[in-house]
Amino acid sequence: MAVLEFIKTYSPLFLPAIWITIQITVLSILLGIVIGLVTALAKLTRVKLLNRIADLYITVIRGTPLIVQLSFIYFALPGIGIELSAFVAGSIGLGIHNGAYIAEIFRGGIQSISTGQTEAARSLGMTQSQTMRRIILPQALRRVIPPLGNQFIIALKDSSLAGLITVNEIYMTSRRLGASTYQQMEFYMLAGAFYLILVTLFSVVVQKIEKTLETSKRQSSEIL
Question: Which of 37, 46, 133, 210 is deepest in the core (most CB within 10 A)?
Answer without folding.
Answer: 37
